Amino acid sequence: DLCLSLRYVPSSGKLTVAVLEARKLKKMDITGASDPYVKLKLFDSKGKRIGKKKKTSVKSCNLNPYWNESFVFIIDEMDMKRVTLDITVCDYDLIGGGDPIGKIKLGWSQNKEYKPGFKHWKEALENPRRPIIKWHVLQDPEPEDDDEKDKDKKDKDKKDKKDKDKDKDKDKDKKDKDKEEKKDEKKDEKK
Predict the structure, then answer these.
(1) pTM of the model
(2) For labelling alongside 64, which of 1, 20, 164, 179 has CA 20 to 30 A away?
(3) CA trace torsion 71, 79, 14, 42 (10° rounding)
């Protein structure tokens, strides 16, 4: 779980996101711990990233890290209902990028996908200048495909990654085929 604070000041268009702490993070390393840090990205309604992504510091060997770090995004009041804040907790690895442990999305658009993210955002908008603090349950960092309904079923029994990778490839093939079929259908419709 991840504890966040949102504070929005409409007059200056400042959204302050404070990453406070996390608890009971998944163990990602062989040593039975994780070296967590949090990544924040802001997206517009078309899924384009706005500004730079922001990161907290890394807390090594800690499954209940305390960060208390704040990040400021400048967002016009008009855009507050269009943007989505993508927050990912990652495990820092020296080799390669960090492994995602879990993620949440906050924003007006999360109304269907992740209700608490929508509620938190809404509350911050309804109470300008007041920090709203909430705990969020991290969702599984699935491959970024919104059409996967299985996100809710958290795979607690972590199978070997190899199996997963094999499955991923199968899924990819399937998806590609589906896409091609859809394209063909569209062509036929046009004719």
Answers:
(1) 0.73
(2) 164
(3) 10
Please name which of 49, 76, 62 lies closest in space to residue 21, comparing C-alpha atoms. 62
Could you tell me the strand order of the sheet in which 66-74 lies?
A: 66-74, 14-22, 2-9, 132-136
C-alpha distance across the termini of the chain, in Å: 52
The Cβ of residue 19 has, within 10 Å, a number of other Cβ atoms equal to 26
Q: Are 15 and 80 in contact (CB under 8 A)?
A: yes
Own/partner pairs for 53-56, CB < 8 Å, 24+ apart? 56/19
Q: Residue 170 carries which side chain, given as an amino acid letter?
A: K
| pLDDT tens figures, 80-131 | 999 999 999 999 987 767 889 999 999 999 998 999 999 999 999 999 999 9
CB 68 within 8 A of CB 59: no
Alpha-carbon distance of 67 to 86, in angstroms, equals 18
- Taking CA atoms, 40 is separated from 14, 18, 52, 166, 169, in Å, by 15, 10, 9, 30, 28
CA distance 186 to 191: 9
Are the C-beta atoms of residues 47 and 98 closer than 8 Å to each other? Answer: no
69 token code pair: 């770090």
Which of 105, 108, 111, 110 is closest to 137 using CA atoms?
105
